[in-house]
Write a structure and sequence with these properties.
Four Helix Bundle (Hemerythrin (Met), subunit A), 522 residues, six-stranded mixed sheet, 18 helices, 12 strands, nucleotide-binding, binds guanosine-5'-triphosphate, GTP-binding, binds magnesium ion, GTPase activity, disordered C terminus, disordered N terminus, alpha/beta
């Protein structure tokens, strides 16, 4: 094993710190563990880490269809990469070393049998410019199962090589400081992205926009800690600088507000993009709800019939609307539950529709324009406003436009009693394009995903840490008047939680800010 480099020393430090924390936690619980045992734990953990880190890993990085691909890409990363290239190409590694990051056409052989496996493009990336931060090579081979499996088998026979675990190339990129945790998460979301919005959202993490966002917050926290610590150290024989402390409080309060807004609004938008925005089509029976979902999906998702009460359960499907993933459902027509109902199934259907309406992001409320006059239709919809109050947005669709007189259509269009009213006909498609426009605009707003908007990629993991950041700032603020040291402790905890998000923790950063911003002679 080569000498531990700085990264690994940092890791040992982390492991020891982890174990010290574990030790104090166990002590708090009344369990006595000697420092010696804790150190053994730490070393064991480090050994495992080092063993994993120093092996060379390989894997098929492109997918492989059952009938094969035109091209398949196998990646090898780690200290034995050059040996692997050398063995496979009968000593052409010097050529690779001279031509880094260049596609070189090579014949690949099994070094034990001298069998030609394939003619392939080989690209060598030295550690400084590779994805993983280690020597890495890509073998672009013909994508048949026979070629890929032979090559994987041959590479596995090289000393120190083993198949990679899931996500291990990216994990190494993180451990080698090439990316932080948010970027790693972004990469996994980018691979899973199915819509334009999901791709854009993930890219904000991959390109480091999100890291910058968290780093800005972290910098503010470091400044606050630096100011507080300077006052703990220097204030005993001097008066506290009230003005400066007020500035610190202002900074901390506005940071806490910003994080809380991020938690309540921004993360919600990100969840909608990642998991899909939820839409329910609601309205009274027979107004055309099922006709509308079928029209949106361009297939027969739900049964349509002139019989009132045809849909009796939630019928759900997935859609891509304007580049956003949407989960949309048709529901049973809602009626007053105290009025006479057809049977228990209808009652259950209505209950399910009501429950769903309370959890979705957007409701499309359908009205039969041919049935009632405007006042009655609006009055009827008002009766259901309580059910729909949790939705962030409601779009009113006046359906069956083909059965409405021109005069009535004009009256609906001029009616300003509700925002987001669309008049259309599921039968003739008239008004449908305008409806899609309004729907897309509203989804855009709910997902907050215009190209230049702030970074909003967020996961449950980020949220968990951000709640703790916010709580610690709150505690820091409540203690700063009583005890600066305790206050600083809470801000340090807040900073630590923020560092968990990006995967970076260091106390040196705090010292840097102190010495940069303060003259020691003061
Ligand atoms: N003329 C006309 N008829 C329509 C239009 N949209 C729907 N219909 C008809 O209205 C009737 C009811 O349509 P559905 O889509 O089943 O209505 P629904 O709201 O799902 O009804 P329930 O499931 O019973 O609550 C069917 O006969 C449709 O063909 C339209 O735009 N114009
Ligand atoms: Mg229906």
């Amino acid at each position: 094993m080569s000498e531990a480099n700085d990264e690994h020393r940092v890791h040992v430090h982390r492991v020891v710190t982890d174990n010290t924390t574990m030790l104090s936690k166990l002590n708090l619980c009344g369990v006595r563990v000697s420092k010696q045992i804790a150190r053994v734990f730490a070393l064991k953990k480090y050994e495992k880490f080092a063993r994993n880190c120093y092996s060379t890993i390989f894997a098929l990085s492109s997918g492989l269809q059952p009938r094969g691909n035109a091209i398949a890409i196998i990646r090898v990363s780690g200290p034995e990469t050059i040996d692997v290239i050398d063995g496979l190409t009968r000593g052409k590694s010097q050529k690779m070393l001279a031509k880094t990051r260049t596609a070189v056409l090579c014949s690949l052989y099994d070094p034990q049998t001298n069998d030609l496996i394939d003619k392939a493009i080989v690209i060598y990336f030295p550690s400084a410019s590779s994805y993983t931060g280690e020597d890495l090579c890509e073998l672009h081979v013909h994508g048949s199962h026979a070629v890929v499996s032979s090559l994987l088998e041959v590479i596995g026979k090289f000393n120190g090589c083993r198949p990679s675990e899931a996500g291990e190339f990216t994990k190494r990129a993180f451990l080698n400081g090439k990316i932080d945790l948010t970027e790693a998460e972004g990469i996994s979301h980018l691979i899973a992205a199915q819509t334009t919005a999901q791709r854009r959202n993930a890219l904000k993490a991959v390109t480091g926009v999100l890291t910058q966002h968290y780093d800005n917050w972290r910098r503010t926290l470091l400044e606050i800690i630096a100011y507080l610590e300077a006052n703990i150290d220097f204030s005993e024989d001097q008066l506290l600088d009230e003005e400066m402390l007020n500035g610190v409080v202002k900074k901390a309060t506005s940071l806490k507000d910003e994080i809380n807004t991020f938690l309540t609004e921004t993360t919600k938008k990100s969840e909608r993009i990642i998991h899909g925005l939820e839409i329910a089509i609601m309205g009274e029976p027979n107004v055309g709800k099922s006709s509308l979902i079928n029209k949106l999906c361009q297939r027969q998702v739900s049964i349509v019939s002139p019989i009132s009460g045809t849909t009796r359960d939630i019928v759900e499907t997935h859609l891509d609307v304007g580049g956003y993933a949407v989960r949309i459902c048709d529901t049973a027509g809602i009626k007053d539950l105290s009025a006479p109902l057809t049977d228990v199934i209808e009652e259950e259907g209505i209950k399910r529709a009501i429950t769903r309406a309370q959890s979705v992001d957007l409701i499309i409320y359908v009205i039969d324009g041919s049935k009632d006059d405007i006042e009655t239709a609006i009055e009827n919809s008002q009766k259901h406003s309580q059910i729909m109050k949790n939705a962030a947005c409601i779009i009113f669709v006046v359906n069956k436009m083909d059965l409405i007189s021109d005069k009535m259509v004009k009256m609906w269009k001029e009616n300003k009693s509700k925002q987001n009213i669309c008049i259309l006909s599921c039968k003739t498609s008239e008004g449908f394009e305008d409806f899609i426009d309004i729907l897309t605009k509203n989804i855009d707003t709910l997902c907050g995903q215009s190209l230049n908007e702030e970074a909003i990629f967020s996961t449950e993991r980020h949220k968990t840490h951000l709640y703790k950041v916010s709580e610690n700032i709150e505690s820091g603020l409540s203690h700063y008047k009583k005890d600066l040291a305790i206050s600083a402790h809470y801000f340090r905890e807040a900073c630590k939680e923020l560092s968990f998000i990006t995967g970076r923790i260091s106390t040196e950063d705090i010292l840097d800010v102190i010495f940069k911003d303060f003259c020691i002679g003061k």
